Model the fold of this input.
Amino acid sequence: MAFIPSVQYFDSNSDWLISIKDLEINGRNKKNPLKLNLDINSNQCKYLGCPNIFLRTRTSGLCNDHHNHQHDIFLDVYNFNAHISSPTHAQIINNLIDWSKSRNFDLINFFKDCSFTILGNVPDISTISKEINHTGFVSKNLSAYLDICIECVNRHFPSDNNSSYQKIKIKNIEYPARVLAIIFVGLLLCEESNRGDRWFWREIIKDESRTTLLGGAMPIAYFASMNFPWGMEIGKAAPKFIPSGI
Ligand SMILES: [Zn+2]
Done:
């Protein structure tokens, strides 16, 4: 198994660093949801170098040893080198919404961009590690996928605009708005690669409608539900739109 080198983004204006590291098999490793033997023509595990065989009817194409991803990527946040426990998706979204209202900032465009740019464009972590290979596709390194996420933030919270650095307080920690956006897209990247299958159905099978997992769409759905003019108070029930722990 190949260790995926850590990737980082450092915001030099504010001294915030986000780092994504590979916990390998010591994380909360998820099942690999891909269907690598859809046409039921093979009985050998598709994991790089694995000789295990199984019944042809196993559509995952993965043996019992490789049923789960062998990687789990995890996001860490640091400010002036001090480790800060990352706010959750819901905390980031709620606070960005409150902040944007008072400033007339168009948050919908940012979340739309996240949806178009990130969802379905980030492969699962076994593909990124190059231990699962697909005919006609070569995965980029994790750093290139993080770059796509940062570019999305740059379009809405540019580093040369002072308002990107307005402070938003969550649990006594003041985050620049841009940093919260960076943490958010970093979490989306982890979510999509640790437990998504949208990229596979879109890129490899060319039928995105067969996607089975929401992955990074979940927090975006939470944002949409928080922003929808319900005509009633969702109140404390709102967090139930997303499962706890993401
Ligand atoms: Zn195997």
